[in-house]
Specification:
Distance between the termini: 41 Å
Structural class: alpha/beta
Number of strands: 10
Helix content: 25-40%
Oligomer: single chain
Order of helices and strands: EHHHEEHEEHEHEHHHEEEH
Radius of gyration: 20 Å
Number of domains: 2
């Protein structure tokens, strides 16, 4: 059975998704950040986490950006082989139209940060296009899109290395992370991609950041695989470095560490590392031919008490309603 997907449904869904993630944190991140706030012992770091939580809830209330750097858009697309698009335009064109609509939205304009010529003029494209699009054909009759909008500070801290097969990935990560400083705006996540080729390892690392945050569950039940053991080891060792929230020290630098692997050449071990900042903007949706995607806002009561107390009198005015 062929699924017909209209171009406007793609454009509208992408635009709505990018607006959605500009002011709503993922619920799993809020849950883990609230736990970090509870256990934090450093007054400066605890206050920094509290400010992130308060800012997050105010952004959700007012539908205003979590961070002034509203990011460069990456789209990870899986096109079912039974999908047919009702358009004469490319998939990248449709996604870029959605980006354009989102970032020039009159009710909540987002900062355009993309420059057309990376080498010389570096002239701003003024609508945050183009997005970086990764697409693959898969079995099925749906269109799956995962979007992330990653800020420049955390993107600039991405690193790559080709290790010898006998080298320790853990040692390399623990040597590399302190050199990143706090410019990637922790507390956030570390995505680590291992294997494939040089470009595949980096792609794996970024894709890893899109997975649900589940470190609390992993710690509770214990590891079942060597990769899960490595995740826990890196989570504990990175947090033991003492970088902490916004670089102010403390117990939590990362709320999770994600690892994705891929088969590689016998002589190689490419490793990519991509940090994710405290904005942590990403969302996944599916189109099945029945119109644009719908995004359910989080329950604002799920924010921890510190955020509820400090935003008790926050008001929505004008376009904020």
């Amino acid at each position: 059975m062929t699924t017909i997907i209209k171009e406007d449904d793609v454009i509208c869904s992408v635009a709505d998704a990018l607006q959605f993630i500009s002011y709503y944190h993922p619920a799993d991140y809020i849950k883990h950040l609230a736990k970090a706030y509870e256990i934090e012992e450093s007054p400066a770091a605890k206050d920094a986490i509290a400010q992130i939580l308060v800012n997050s809830r105010m952004s959700a209330l007012g539908k205003r950006p979590i961070c002034q750097d509203t990011g460069m858009v990456s789209a990870f697309v899986k096109v079912g082989m039974n999908v047919c698009f009702e358009t004469s335009r490319s998939l990248s064109d449709l996604i870029n139209d959605g980006v354009r609509h989102a970032y020039t939205n009159d009710s909540n304009p987002l900062r355009a940060s993309i420059v057309f010529d990376p080498l010389f003029s570096r002239q701003n494209t003024r609508d945050n296009t183009p997005a970086v699009v990764h697409a693959e054909l898969v079995p099925g009759d749906h269109l799956q899109i995962t979007l992330c909008a990653k800020g420049g500070r955390s993107e600039n801290k991405a690193r790559f290395v080709t290790l010898n097969p006998s080298d320790s990935v853990v040692d390399w990560v623990l040597d590399t992370v302190p050199k990143l400083g706090a410019g990637w705006c922790p507390p956030g996540m570390m995505g680590i991609g291992i294997g494939g080729s040089c470009e595949k390892a980096m792609l794996l690392a970024k894709e890893a950041l899109l997975e649900p945050i589940d470190m609390s569950n992993l710690l509770s039940r214990g590891p079942k695989t060597p990769e899960e053991e490595m995740r826990i080891e890196l989570f504990e060792e990175i947090n033991a470095l003492g970088i902490g929230a916004q670089g102010l020290g403390g117990l939590t630098t990362v709320v999770d560490v994600k690892i994705k692997t891929f088969p590689t050449h016998a002589a190689s071990m490419p490793v990519g590392l991509v940090p994710q900042c405290a904005a942590n903007r990403h969302v996944h949706f599916v189109l099945d031919g029945n119109g644009p995607a719908h995004f359910d806002p989080p329950d604002l009561r799920d924010w921890p008490q510190v955020a509820l107390d400090r935003t008790a009198h926050a008001a929505r005015r004008g376009a904020w309603t």
